[in-house]
């Protein structure tokens, strides 16, 4: 390894340290920080963000990237080489170019605005009053529009935001995938609606919170989550966060009116965590350390939550244990009835508890609203009304209040515009991966029935996790499945599953 590559890695490692320190403060903000710490936390995050920005965009980093690129044969060689060093420099150059365009003052301003917006969102959601959040969201949208101006004009302004989470993908590509998918899902939903509805009442009894958490922790352990390198805490909106490959934390939430939500939320965040824990150790403190994209990341959480966690083989193993913990709540409820209950299809107001057949409709709704806000064709003051109108159009239901509607997600308060489409892309990728890994592991279903997940996790580690950000998302999916991201496998999966559940 050359001296200059070592120098570049050392600086990038320091940038990673600053970013992870900021992530730790954000984790604390959402878990244990007292409300009074909000203003100071905004300044702290702003300072760390500014330091990371200045260090990552320094002239020295630029010169080192140029010199190492030349040592490795030039930019064209970087694009074609499969070596880890070439990938590191390629990703570092991309990050450098993007970060260099964003002034440090903007990073500080965004940290301050989003910290205040997050706390306003929490208050607004608690009171179900969008007017509390509205002025903060307007500031966030103004920042997003300003951010777009730092980059060359794209085919659509939303492309710039999307590229931060799904490198290389455009708004047009996403819409080209979503439009036919929407038609397929609407067709399936109509077929389900004409069938006898599933009884899900056993899921909504009075479940003991401590026992539910005990079961959740047991499932995460079975999946392969390493408690020596992680922990689980409670938050308003569950998430996973990474400070190093050996410190990957998850969060969850218990809701009395929907107690099993904690289980599926835990499986979801465990899926994210397993990805981060499985990245090649050599990538620690480098730009390659995290997931390839938000969509790839979401494919892992949705795979473990839905394709595994809502499958019949999974519950053939776990249901006896679950029923032993909650005998009164599940008295007279057989395995098949429980399996159908957790896979009930019914339009709902809340995205994170939506069933697999309706989930993507929530994402398509948010995508259209985000595009409208970014373009300026949708006024922020009209957002609650437009939200409700889209809910009626896509799902045939109208939220009773702002908390169940426009205020339910934390993302806009954090400035995560461009993020929502990756949730649906993750669903699609998960099904593509599932078809491939079942072809490679023909005995997988039997292993899951026995509560064994070693082969599944091992396959994911070897084919996806270990590579971190080495490959762009489309390239990674193509290398594993033989095709780019598409909806075909997901439509097959939904059709087969719900034909069984509903007897279509």
Written description of the protein model:
This protein is an all-alpha fold. The protein has a domain at 171-502: Neurolysin, domain 3, CATH 1.10.1370. Helices cover 63% and strands 3% of the residues. It contains 21 helices and 3 strands. The chain has helices at residues 3-31, 38-56, 59-71, 75-80, 84-100, 104-127, 130-148, 158-163, 171-193, 209-223, 261-277, 294-308, 312-325, 335-342, 356-375, 383-395, 421-440, 444-449, 454-463, 473-481, 488-502, and strands at 232-234, 240-244, 247-252. The chain has a 3-stranded mixed sheet. Strand 2 and strand 3 (247-252) form a beta hairpin. Helix 2 (38-56) packs antiparallel against helix 6 (104-127), helix 6 runs antiparallel to helix 7 (130-148) and helix 9 (171-193) packs antiparallel against helix 15 (356-375). It is globular, with a radius of gyration of 23 Å. The mean pLDDT is 95.
**Overall mean confidence score, pLDDT:** 95
Oligomer: single chain
Relative helix content: 55-70%
Q: Tell the overall outline.
A: globular
The CATH class of one domain turns out to be Mainly Alpha
At the third CATH level, what is the topology name of one domain? Neurolysin, domain 3
Structural class: mainly alpha
CATH architecture label name of one domain: Orthogonal Bundle
| End-to-end C-alpha gap | 60 Å
Sequence of secondary-structure elements: HHHHHHHHHHEEEHHHHHHHHHHH
Percentage of β-strand residues: under 5%
The radius of gyration computed from the alpha-carbon positions, rounded to a whole number of angstroms, is 23 Å
Low-confidence runs of at least 5 consecutive residues: none
